[in-house]
Amino acid sequence: MAPESGSKYPDLRLISAFVEVAQERSFTKAAARLQLSQPRLSMRIRALEEQLGFSLLSRNSRNVSLSVEGAALLPAAKQMIEMAERVLATASEINCAYSSRLEIGAVSFRVPERWTILSTFLSAHPNISVTVQTAASTPLWERLREHVVNIAFTLGPVPADLQSMVLSKCRIGLSVPQSSPWAVHDRISLNDLRGQSVVLFPRVPDIELHDRVRAKLAPYELQILDFPEMSSEAMTQFVAQAKIATISAQWWERDHSADLHFLTIDEIEDEMELHLVTTPGPMSDAVAKLWTMLSHPRSERLDAA
Asked: In this structure, what DSSP letter does residue 67 have?
């Protein structure tokens, strides 16, 4: 029961054993309060005496009394126990506050589903405080690892060291202004676009998906413009002003349905995935509530919340 090698501080369990015996003046009563056997309690007292270098108790067959050194040490020992209890109480308060707070990371590319999810969750749990940080997926994964956020909505394949679930998938297609002649159709072939200029969604949300779609466009002699900004508002404004078609996820068109029309592309069946991501291991109460709600099928999520 000696302290860890190299430690100059006594084990709190040894101090607690001493305080109980000193207050009860009985090994039997102290052992019962600590839920220890009497031999185990005696071992703790001896270990503390050995570490401190003096006897703490005077023992005889009828009672237990404090030695002079033990009496001098008792007030400080009690303070140590009280301080430990304050540490535990403060830790409990911190855990309580943390468990009722969600620090959410979310991709800056607007995905309507995430707002629906948060609205449903906040309606069910109004006492949980929620803040949202926006960034691209890769920085959000790093913020999760650093515990800057405790859960995140991200796009694209999730690194293996993080825990994730797929929330929804959205097909890649062609978004055009409502004034475009193509807006009267629901599907289009890349042959119809041959030689045209199109804007391609940025690589940031999903590099593999971007490159895979770009490779499928290559045989059709398209003039491909990579949009530099990861902003649906900026892309919408550009499409409206430049009157140019954009290859993007259908989420974008849903978010701007008054301005844009979405067409599926015959040769492209790829989808962009929205993930809910957190770190492995125990979850805070707030994170667990959101995770559990979203683990249910969509039709059951409202009831699960």
From this structure: -
